[in-house]
Amino acid sequence: MAAPMLRCVSRSRRFCTPGPLEALPLGLREAHSGVKGLLAVQKARGLFKEFFPERGTKIELPELFDGGRAANFPQTIYCGFDPTADSLHVGHLLALLGLFHFQRAGHNVIALVGGATARLGDPSGRTKEREALDAERVRSNAHALRLGLETLAANHQQLFTNGRKWGSFTVLDNSSWYQEQHLVDFVAAVGGHFRMGTLLSRLSVQTRLKSPEGMSLCEFLYQVLQAYDFYYLFQRYGCRVQLGGSDQLGNIMSGYEFINKLTGEDVFGITLPLITSTTGAKLGKSAGNAVWLNRDNTSPFELYQFFVRQPDHSVERYLKLFTFLPLPEIEHIMQQHVKEPEKRGPQKRLAAEVTKLVHGQEGLDSAKRCTQALYHSSIDALEVMSDEELKELFKEASFSELVLDPGTSVLDTCRKANAIPDGPRGYRMITEGGVSINHRQVTNPESVLVVGQHILKNGLSLLKIGKRNFYIIKWLQL
Prior knowledge:
With 478 residues, the chain is an alpha/beta fold. The chain is built from 20 helices and eleven strands.
């Protein structure tokens, strides 16, 4: 593939002269609009944080998305996801929700997997360099991220329809336009359009340059490649808007300046808030506190519980950020919560909406079964749980497959599962009430196992020793 031909021509339409409504300041325009605009609604929800550049966003950006003209000229918006791991995490969800809100309003969105840029490592928001990933690892992660993005888009399309005509959702990988580039040709064509003083002035660069470790050339060039991504999508897809976390503002600015210098056209950036832990740390792989969206890493039950456990002071904000629920409905949910706080209604609704989006209806049903089985000692829930669900629910539990011989007793079962020590001590653990099977305490070691009581309909037994030690037994040849 030859070096990129940088054309100073834009495929997108020029802005129309603003009418009387568009000439009003943004706040007054929202107040006078019969239907509150897309950007204003997401700003009110707290999803959209900053708009860039400052000039142009008062008139031009709202004109792209709000009012009758937007329906006739759907826009294209993109957000990038670097495959530094084989799964997205909760920190990525806001970016996806941002794309989905645009899609729901009839615009076309692109989720860009950074199969090339992940090799460099984004320095934004980091105090030290990322661990380098080899090409094969990045390719594997990129493939997994594509599948994850496509699954989320399919769940959104299937389970959250609103009766309106939606735009398209496309997943691309930037390695497709970098893998055959020749280094010298690319640098010669692109490098001359970037000024070192401007690149060095970015906050992410300044922070790293002042750190003891400094900054590598790979990291420094990251913003150049992200800027070129924006330019490429602008030229090929008419993409005028880039979404990103608030730590991405410097990279978005580089893309704007690059495109504006080459084409004379304005493009825009919209930043999203960063989700942090209760200690203020950014949620993510690097911080070691990621809540993953891949079921192999974080089960539907664990994801559900992450949101159920959100404190009261966070839950209203999270309902606005992580769900499609209308603001009046969220207000009603919070009013009910004031009356019945013990029911934790907002937390349960938040957890249900997010789990359904990430894992589908089956995943939500699984999370609720696990919740009933663990926290409400529900035998009915245990009986319909699959092996996979039990393993997910009791990740630290020992899993055994045993043959049910005639006359197998409670004592036999505990010993075969290596759940109690041999000899009198293990015997006493049962007689003293330290053992339960399927949430029912057993105190007679010689009791013979009964199907339907000690062994559930699905052929499983949940053995608990003490308060925290679980053993899952799958019985064979029942």
